[in-house]
Specification:
0% strand; mainly alpha; Serine Threonine Protein Phosphatase 5, Tetratricopeptide repeat
Length: 126
């Protein structure tokens, strides 16, 4: 039974990692084309945001939150890419990612003057 649980966690981690790289690729491509083709960029950001939300929910459920996915969705909320612009949500996501050790989140927190109070993972789980 333990082997099945470990195997299913491993498979879930691989799936989440591949999904994260796909979301990351979409965000990077969206950033590159946002000025030339904003409609296509927005579609890429929406796809990325949906993928990131799945990853975050799954990673929190597996007690291994993905700092990279949490930071990236925070960046999407900060800029209003693929989601409504919401600095309060961005701050929560970035603070959690920072507490999990994500360096880019720490930079964005400082750059935007956010303060990180105690934030629980349940607050960002969607």
């Amino acid at each position: 039974m333990k082997k099945i649980i470990v195997l299913s966690i491993f498979i879930a981690m691989l799936f989440a990692q591949n999904l994260y790289f796909e979301a990351f690729k979409n965000v990077m491509q969206g950033k590159r084309i946002i000025n030339k083709n904003p409609q296509k960029a927005e579609k890429l950001f929406i796809i990325a945001a949906n993928d990131l939300k799945k990853i975050i929910k799954s990673s929190i459920n597996n007690h291994q939150p993905s700092a990279n996915a949490i930071e990236l969705i925070g960046e999407l909320y900060l800029n209003g890419w693929g989601v409504e612009k919401n600095e309060r949500k961005a701050e929560k996501f970035l603070c959690v990612a920072s507490k999990l050790g994500n360096f880019k989140a720490k930079i964005l927190i400082k750059k935007n003057g956010f303060t990180c109070n105690k934030i629980y993972l349940k607050e960002i789980k969607q």
